[in-house]
Design a protein that fits this description.
The protein is mainly α. It has one domain (21-167). Helices cover 68% and strands 0% of the residues. It has eight helices and no strands. The chain has helices at residues 3-6, 19-43, 55-65, 74-95, 99-116, 123-133, 136-141, 144-167. Helix 3 packs parallel to helix 8 and helix 5 packs antiparallel against helix 6. It is globular, with a radius of gyration of 18 Å. The model has no long low-confidence stretch (mean pLDDT 94).
Length: 178
């Protein structure tokens, strides 16, 4: 198949999602992000810690809106973010004089390592990138970034996903752990 023919597609768009599924996705995302944001804005204001990062929004789409996706499963959610956070911090520490290179290196390496460890989680790429392009507050965290905000925030969101996604009879989460 030629390069251009591959871009044509060929499959149909997914069917529409039921109102019930939309509501459970909304409830999960709200209840998953709320405690992380609450902690960020009520307990960490005025100190050097940060508790919420942009990649959590993308994780919310997966773990509350695409619960059956292999990319949304606990191993991928937790492992993908942690692996990527470590790689992002290392990339920043080694290549900080060259932020364009550190950015590319962090994301590409995070993808490769997530593949190798079976923890591919697309928001992990953003977690690695945030470690490089984040504010001084993020940079000052160093490897603490892996613990707060990344690991702690992800665990909170996972607990909410386990509860909310199993309340509805039509949902089951996780599909697998390991």
């Amino acid at each position: 198949m030629s390069f251009l023919k591959k871009m044509k597609g060929g499959k149909k768009s997914p069917s529409t999602v039921s109102l019930s599924e939309i509501m459970w996705s909304w409830i999960g995302a709200f209840l998953g992000i709320a405690p992380v944001a609450f902690l960020n804005y009520n307990f960490f204001v005025g100190d050097d810690l940060v508790f919420i990062i942009g990649s959590f929004g993308a994780s919310a789409v997966l773990i509350y809106g695409a619960v059956r996706s292999p990319l949304a499963q606990p191993r991928n959610l937790v492992g993908g973010h942690i692996v990527s956070a470590v790689i992002g911090v290392i990339a920043y520490k080694i290549f900080y004089p060259f932020p364009w290179f550190a950015s590319a290196f962090a994301v590409a390496t995070a993808i490769a390592v997530m593949h190798a460890t079976k923890t591919l989680h697309p928001p992990g790429g953003a977690t690695a990138l945030i470690a490089v392009i984040g504010s001084e507050k993020i940079h000052d965290l160093g490897f603490l970034y892996v613990v707060i905000p990344v690991s702690t925030g992800v665990i909170i969101m996972l607990v909410v996903a386990l509860i909310v996604n199993n309340i509805a009879a039509s949902r089951k989460y996780p599909e697998f752990w390991l």
